C-alpha cells in the first residue's frame, strides 16, 4: 500500500519501543513533528499498555486528542471515558488459582495504583498481603504475571477464565484483561468518538498487541525494532524508535506529501 493512497486524518501511536526511545525519552524533533501534525489538522492519539498515571507525564510534552491506556481497558476522549475492567468474580477466581502456585509474581493494575504480592523490581508497586480483597474493592484494569519460568504462560492459560484473555508484552510480562479490553477495540471506540474512520488512520507499533491495529488501520507502520510478526503485517517499516523513526516517517511521508 502506498503512503499517498491514505488520506490520514488521525495518527495513533504506541509508546514504549515505538514513539519513546529505549531510555523512555522523547526527542525535541519528535515533539516538534507531532505538533506540526496537529497544526495541519491531523488528530494525534495514543494507544498504549501503560496505565494512565504513567502516560500523563508524556502529555506534558505532547497534547493527545484522545488516549487508549491499559491496553484498551480505559479510553479517554475529551470528557468521555469508557472502561472495561475485570469483573470481581472473574478476578477472584483467577487469583485463587494463581496464588496456589507460590512462585508467581502477581501485580494488580488499577490504573491509579499497582499492587503486588512480591517485590517487583521493574515497577513501583505497593506490596499487598490480600490481592483478592483488592479485586473486590478496586476497579482492576489488568492482572499481570511476570514471566519468571519458561512454563509460566502455559500455567497461566490453564487457569484463565474464558471471560478473560492474556497477551505477552516485551517477552516477559503476561497481561490479563477483560475480553473487551483490547487495543483495537479501544482504538475503534476512540476513532468513533472523533468521527474518524480506521481507513483514515495511520497506526505505529512494535509488539504483539499492535498486530490487529496495524492490519486494520488504513496505514500500518512498524518500527524497525518491532518483532518480526509485526513487521511482516505492516504496510511500511520505518526507522527504529532510537532513530526517531516515527517522527521521520511522519515528516517525510505524511507532512511533506501533503504540502
Report on the structure:
The structure is a single chain. Helix 2 runs parallel beside helix 10 (245-255) and helix 4 (88-99) packs antiparallel against helix 5. The two termini are 20 Å apart. The relative contact order is 0.18. With 259 residues, the chain is an alpha/beta fold. The strands form two sheets. The protein has an eight-stranded mixed sheet. Strands 8-7-6-9-11-10 form a six-stranded mixed sheet, with helices on one face. It is built from ten helices and 14 strands. It is elongated.
Which strand order spans the largest sheet, edge to edge or round the barrel?
5-4-3-2-1-12-13-14
Give the uncertain stretches in residue-range form. none
Structural class: alpha/beta
Helix content: 25-40%
The sequence of SSEs as H and E is: EHHEHEEEHEEEHEHEEHEHEHEH
Helices, by number, come to 10
- Report mean pLDDT, rounded to a whole number: 93
Amino acid at each position: 500500500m502506498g503512503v499517498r493512497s491514505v488520506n490520514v486524518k488521525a495518527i495513533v501511536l504506541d509508546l514504549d519501543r515505538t514513539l519513546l526511545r529505549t531510555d523512555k525519552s522523547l526527542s525535541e524533533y519528535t515533539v516538534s513533528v507531532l505538533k506540526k501534525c496537529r497544526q495541519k489538522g491531523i488528530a494525534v492519539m495514543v494507544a498504549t499498555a501503560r496505565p494512565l498515571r504513567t502516560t500523563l507525564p508524556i502529555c506534558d510534552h505532547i497534547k493527545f486528542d484522545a488516549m487508549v491506556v491499559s491496553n484498551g481497558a480505559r479510553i479517554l476522549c475529551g470528557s468521555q471515558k469508557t472502561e472495561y475492567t475485570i469483573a470481581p468474580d472473574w478476578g477472584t477466581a483467577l487469583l485463587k488459582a494463581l496464588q496456589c502456585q507460590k512462585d508467581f509474581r502477581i501485580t494488580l493494575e488499577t490504573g491509579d495504583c499497582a499492587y503486588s504480592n512480591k517485590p517487583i523490581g521493574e515497577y513501583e508497586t505497593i506490596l499487598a498481603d490480600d490481592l483478592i480483597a483488592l479485586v473486590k474493592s478496586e476497579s482492576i484494569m489488568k492482572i499481570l504475571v511476570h514471566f519468571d519460568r519458561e512454563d509460566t504462560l502455559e500455567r497461566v492459560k490453564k487457569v484463565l477464565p474464558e471471560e478473560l484473555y492474556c497477551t505477552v508484552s516485551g517477552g516477559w510480562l503476561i497481561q490479563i484483561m477483560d475480553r473487551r479490553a483490547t487495543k483495537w477495540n479501544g482504538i475503534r471506540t476512540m476513532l468513533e468518538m472523533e468521527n474518524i474512520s480506521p481507513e483514515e488512520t495511520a497506526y505505529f507499533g512494535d509488539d504483539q498487541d499492535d498486530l490487529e491495529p496495524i492490519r486494520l488501520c488504513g496505514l500500518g507502520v512498524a518500527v524497525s525494532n518491532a518483532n518480526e510478526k509485526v513487521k511482516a503485517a505492516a504496510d511500511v517499516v520505518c526507522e527504529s524508535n532510537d532513530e526517531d523513526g516515527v517522527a521521520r516517517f511522519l515528516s517525510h511521508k505524511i507532512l511533506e506529501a501533503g504540502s
